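Handover notes (outgoing to incoming on-call)

Open items:
1. ABC transporter substrate-binding protein: sequence verified, structure written out, both below. Nothing else pending on this one.
2. Nothing else urgent.
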Amino acid sequence: MSTYPSRPLNRRGFLALGSGALLTLAGCASSDEPDSTTLGALPTVSPDKNTALRVGVSTTQAQLVAEPSLGPLPFSATWVRLNGGPETIQGFRAGAVDLAGNAGMPPIQAHDIGVDAKIVAISHNTAVNYIPTTRPGSGIRTAKDVVGKKIAFSQGQAQGVTILKWLKENGISYKDVTLVPLPSAQFLTALQGKQVDLAPLTEPSLTKYLKQYERDGARTLPTEVQDLLSLLWAPTSVLADDRKAAAIQAFIPIWVKGNNWSWENPEKWIDSYYVKDQGVTKDDGERIVKSRKKPLYPTDWDSSIAWEQSIADLMSGAGFVRKFDVSVLFDRRFEHIAAQAAPAEYRGQV
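ABC transporter substrate-binding protein C-alpha cells:
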C-alpha cells in the first residue's frame, strides 16, 4: 500500500489544487447552479463483484489491510490516493473517483464551481485538528502578531475555513493579513522556504515539522477551532447508478466499523497506519492518537446541515463562494445508514 512563489489571492472562483497533472479550476465557476440529476429511492439491488467503485478513502483502505475481518467489500474497489479536497473535486470532475472521504468544505467549493456531488455519510469529530503553526524566525508569538503576515490558505479545504474562523475568533479580519493561495500539500514546504509566516497544520505533518524546526523557533498558537464534519460524498451521476449507489450503501457500515476499530485499537492503528503508512515514529504516533476524539454518528443530519451552512456563510461573507442553501449538498436517502451501523455508544451529534 502506498504512503500517501506567492501571488495575491483572487477570491471568486479560485481553487488551489495539488501539483502534477491536476488542473487549476480557477475561472471555471458558473453563475448557474450545478445541474442536479434527479435521484429516486435507494436501490434494493445488492452490489456484487461486477460493480466497480473507485474509492478515495485512505483510512478505510488502511483499516481493511490492518484488520481484514472488517471486510470484505461486496464490490470491486480500486483505491485512489487523494491529497485533500481539491484533488477529490478534480477527480469527480474528471470522472476518475466515485466516492471520497473529506471534511465539510470541499462539497461547498465543488458546488460553487459547478461540480454536482452529494454527501452520503457523516461522522462528527470534536477534536481540534488544524493547528496554526509558524515558520522559524517569524517573530509570531500570539495571534495578534499575525497582522500584516502571510498565511497559507487553501480555499477548497478545511484548512482554509479553520484559518478564517481562527482569525475571526481572535478579532482579526482576513483583510489584515495576506492570504497566500496554496494547496495544503505545499504548506510544509511553504513554511520551510519562508513563503508564508503561518500555516494550519494537521497530523502527522505537524509532528514531523515541529520535530525538525521547533529548535529554530517554529511554534504552534492556541486554537479551539473544530472541523466538525468528517464525511463521505460522491458525484450525483454515480449516485444515480443503482448498482454503484448500492455499493456505496454497503460501504458506509464498513467505513463506520473501520473508524470505530481504529479508535478501539490504538496500538494496532499506530503501527499499521501512522508508522508503516505515514512514516512517523511509534512515540509520535502515540501522541497523535491521544489528540483524537471518539467518532460520533448523528442520528439525523439537522445539526450537520446547520454547521455546513455556517461554513458556507463564512466563506460567502468573505467573497470566496456565492451564498446558497447547503441542504442541496446532502443526499438524505442515506441519512440513517451510518448511525444504524454504529453501536449505541457511537451514536450522537454536536
